[in-house]
Write a structure and sequence with these properties.
The chain is an alpha+beta fold and 169 residues long. It has a single domain (6-129), classed as Roll (Thiol Ester Dehydrase, Chain A), CATH 3.10.129.10. The protein is built from three helices and five strands; from the N terminus they run βαββββαα. The chain has helices at 30-49, 133-152, 162-168; strands spanning 11-16, 52-62, 72-82, 86-96, 103-116. It binds acetyl coenzyme *A (ACO). Residues 38, 42, 54-57, 83-86, 112, 114, 116, 120, 122, 146, 149-150, 153, 155 line the site of acetyl coenzyme *A. Belongs to the acyl coenzyme A hydrolase family.
């Protein structure tokens, strides 16, 4: 299967924060952001694999900055690495200053998706060839994150997580 670059799966969703999507502090509700990120990540995974894709795991979410009512929010999702049937999707969330238009990073997240056939059985996906320094950094660390996700899900024994162990030994 021919490799693809992360930019081939790049998915950008830009939308406003409306009153029905906020918490009592008038900031974007966390679950709404998770749903928006899941949608962007699923499109990126579909662009990479050209298959049906399902969310296997939300590996990491950092709500570093609150996002105020009325903000313009841009979600950028790209496949950072693929394995056999699974893909890691890296998501960067930006907010845009109304007056200057300058973008600031608000959050980031990492999701795992699996490509499946019509019966929901996992199927192989193309490999990823990272291009930029940031893409290479994210690619290199992805196996470690996959092992951590599998250990936390009870699908891998800690003793088998070679990449994780290498961090501490
Ligand atoms: C777009 C949406 O929101 S879809 C709705 C939400 N998601 C769903 O409904 C998915 C429900 N879950 C499922 O269908 C299944 O659990 C699947 C397809 C995700 C995985 O099925 P499994 O029977 O575990 O398959 P299997 O063990 O072969 O794993 C398939 C791949 O998923 C990976 N995987 C499974 N669980 C995890 C996890 N928690 N974290 C990271 N990767 C995982 C495996 O490592 C494997 O990757 P690889 O082939 O690249 O090495």
């Amino acid at each position: 299967m021919q490799a693809k670059t992360p930019s081939e799966s790049l998915t950008i969703l830009t939308d406003l924060v409306l009153p029905s999507e906020t918490n009592p502090l008038n900031n974007l509700f966390g679950g709404e952001l998770l749903a928006r990120m899941d949608r962007a990540a699923s499109i990126a995974a579909r662009r990479h694999s050209r298959r049906i894709v399902v969310t296997a795991s939300v590996n990491h979410v950092a709500f570093n900055r609150s996002i105020a009512l009325g903000s313009v929010v841009t979600i950028e999702a790209k496949v950072s690495r693929s394995f056999n049937t699974s893909m890691e999707i890296f998501i960067d969330v930006w907010i845009e200053d109304r007056e200057s238009g300058v973008r600031a990073k608000a959050n980031e997240a990492i999701y795992s998706f699996v490509a499946v056939d019509e019966q929901g059985r996992p199927v192989s996906v193309p490999p990823v060839t990272p291009e930029t320094d940031l893409e290479k950094e994210r690619f290199d660390a992805a196996l470690r994150r996959k092992q951590l996700s599998l250990v936390l899900a009870g699908k891998m024994k800690p003793s088998e997580a070679t990449e994780l162990k290498a961090l501490f030994l």
